[in-house]
Amino acid sequence: MKREGWEGWDQYAPFYDWENAQTLGRRDVPFWRRLASAAGGRVLELGCGTGRVSTPLARAGIALVGIDRSAPMLERARRRITHASTQQLTRFLRLVRGDIRQLPFEDQTFPMVLAPYGVLQSLIRPRDLTATLESVARVIAAGGTFGIDLVPDVPKWREYDNRVQLRGKAGGAELTLIESVRQDPNRRLTTFEQKYVERRGSQIREHRFDLRFRTLSVPQMTQQLERAGFAVDAVLGDYRGRPWDDRADVWIIVAKKR
Q1: Whole-angstrom distance, CA of residue 34 vs CA of residue 64
Q2: If both were cysteines, with which of 37, 44, 51, 250 could 77 make a disulfide (CB 3.0 to 4.6 Å apart)?
């Protein structure tokens, strides 16, 4: 049975913020805030998840709609809004459960669409990426901006088995992430087999799931964008706006709808 790229993310939800706080953190947020502040209207974020990017943008007064397929991820985003106890988030942030391959919005609704931190790499079949780019092209206004962040090191990870990647505490529990990596170069697929060991006193629980990613190169993604009706405006190599090269830490593509 073929697996879908969105599978695994519901199970990942309880651990997503904990892991990202120890890896990426929020070092990309200032970049997205700068870009989105020039939108001139409501911004759409693809794969908003737990609100790691969308909530700080809304706090900055940026009107934003976040869409995600995972109900557990969105529930954590809603809890974040509730705990913030601020009308700013309620006023500027709207969360929607939906499929980014078939965006549930009217044509030319948004002057800007954001796809942070490799969300498009979760589209593991070529037709999924094609459908998503066509859907974005439909809901974005003419001349609108499409910002994409790709994680370039994913296909470079060497395969390994049962490696302890992270340890720490979260919510009164001790967590250990034990990970295996599988590569399928012909399909450009990377699979992370995740095992979270959660210890609370003498009680131990294991949570297992897989996360799969398909990584295209910048020229390949550029070609896909052009086919969908976009023109690439800039390719950046970090969150401070430096020019891109194939050794860059991140691959950021900023495109305009023709």
Answers
A1: 14
A2: 51
| Kind plus residue range of the DSSP H or E element containing 32 | helix 29-36
Asked if residue 257 lies in contact with residue 142, where contact means CB atoms within 8 angstroms, the answer is yes
**Contact yes or no for 195/211 (Cβ under 8 A):** no
Residue 186 CA: distances (Å) to CA of 57, 117, 118, 253: 38, 23, 20, 24
User: Angle formed by the axes of helices 9-22 and 71-84, to 10°?
Assistant: 50
Provide CB contacts within 8 A for 100, sequence distance 6+: 46, 47, 67, 69, 119, 132, 135, 136
**Predicted confidence (pLDDT) per residue in 17-52, tens digit:** 999 888 877 899 999 999 999 999 999 999 999 999
224: which residues sit within 8 A by CB, 6+ positions away?
129, 130, 133, 216
pTM reported for the whole predicted model: 0.94
Q: For the purposes of burial, counting CB atoms within 10 Å of the CB of 201, is it exposed (0-12), middle (13-18) or buried (19 or more)?
A: exposed
Q: How far apart are CA 25 and CA 225, in angstroms?
A: 28
Pairing of strands 203-214, 230-236: unpaired
Render pLDDT for 82-111 as a digit per residue (tens, 0 to 9): 887 677 788 999 999 999 999 999 999 999
Q: What residue has token string 């790229």?
A: 5
Other Cβ atoms closer than 10 A to 199? 13
- DSSP-derived 3-state class of residue 87: helix
CB atoms within 10 A of CB 227: 12
Q: What is the DSSP string of 117-161?
A: TTGGGG--SHHHHHHHHHHHHHHEEEEEEEEEEE-TTGGGPPPEE
Amino acid (1-letter code) at residue 156: K
